[in-house]
């Protein structure tokens, strides 16, 4: 049973690395961002609500994402472990996750924090905006996502450090180099 939390600023390469790690460990990748974007594409009520926050670079309310994660991790394919990509993003989400896992008799094994300096992040996100056409990758929204990250998500680093779960990984380098560093800390 491996429960992995993947953290890092927007554009750190969480999604890319999470996918590789999940393929290697054969566990599902649970990306709240992907789930919300799918809901937007499908035009559901959840999608409409999520879009109003995502397009401004703000976080979707805690209760909404917690509900999504709760439903997802109770599914059968999560019984041997899973990787949370982009969740939790606030202390409240982290606390609710702890409660939820406790009620299921599970616990987080490791928290990976992909460390990338802010200037590099903005550069990467602007570049991704051109390639992926995400509506939340315009410069003002990117700056706001960074602000949101620093204010609401960054404190989680200390939260998990105190619990002895945090592993910092240098997010600069080739995709392969970074995957290797992550696999090293997961397997040790
Ligand atoms: P991501 O693809 O992980 O960068 O997420 C894209 C956007 O979805 C974020 O900027 C938030 O608006 C929203 N989102 C994703 N995950 C969460 C979360 N755990 N809590 C709140 N909002 C989220």
Account of the 3D structure:
- It is a single chain.
- Helix content is 57%, strand content 13%.
- Strands 2-3-1-4-5 form a five-stranded parallel β-sheet, sandwiched between helices.
- It has one domain: 3-Layer(aba) Sandwich (Rossmann fold), CATH 3.40.50.
- The model has no long low-confidence stretch (mean pLDDT 93).
- By secondary structure, the protein is α/β, with parallel strands linked by helices.
- It has helices at residues 14-25, 32-41, 45-54, 62-73, 91-103, 118-132, 139-153, 155-162, 175-187; strands spanning 2-7, 29-31, 81-85, 110-115, 166-170.
- The protein binds adenosine monophosphate.
- Adenosine monophosphate binds next to helix 2 and helix 3.
- Adenosine monophosphate is lined by residues 10, 32-33, 36, 53-54, 58-60, 65, 86-89, 93, 136, 145.
Q: Main attributes?
A:
globular, 188 residues, binds adenosine monophosphate, alpha/beta, Rossmann fold, 9 helices
